[in-house]
């Protein structure tokens, strides 16, 4: 199982847990499993096409998945996925 770090803004879906576990062979599968275990969080992560929303950054072991294989990046048992909402400024 991969460990997923949940940002404060999404912890209402995970009973205020900062880290949870989910399974899958790819980032996409792990995040889909996360939504199965914690219903509703998927709508905060994915757009209507199934892509990661623009304002959510996903890191696998400290590397942005955009520089890897995106949602198809392979995930190993001990990997950590970190979800970070993009900051808006002005």
UniProtKB/TrEMBL annotation:
<dbReference type="InterPro" id="IPR010038">
    <property type="entry name" value="MoaD_arc-typ"/>
</dbReference>
<dbReference type="InterPro" id="IPR012675">
    <property type="entry name" value="Beta-grasp_dom_sf"/>
</dbReference>
<dbReference type="InterPro" id="IPR016155">
    <property type="entry name" value="Mopterin_synth/thiamin_S_b"/>
</dbReference>
<dbReference type="InterPro" id="IPR003749">
    <property type="entry name" value="ThiS/MoaD-like"/>
</dbReference>
<dbReference type="Pfam" id="PF02597">
    <property type="entry name" value="ThiS"/>
</dbReference>
<dbReference type="InterPro" id="IPR052045">
    <property type="entry name" value="Sulfur_Carrier/Prot_Modifier"/>
</dbReference>
<protein>
    <submittedName>
        <fullName>MoaD/ThiS family protein</fullName>
    </submittedName>
</protein>
């Amino acid at each position: 199982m991969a460990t997923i770090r949940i940002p404060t803004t999404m912890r209402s879906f995970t009973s205020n847990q900062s880290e949870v576990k989910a399974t899958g062979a790819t980032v996409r599968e792990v995040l889909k499993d996360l939504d199965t275990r914690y219903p509703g969080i998927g709508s905060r992560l994915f757009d209507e096409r199934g892509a990661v929303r623009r304002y959510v950054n996903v890191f696998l072991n400290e590397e942005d998945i955009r520089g890897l294989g995106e949602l198809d990046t392979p995930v190993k048992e001990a990997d950590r996925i970190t979800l970070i909402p993009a900051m808006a400024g002005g």
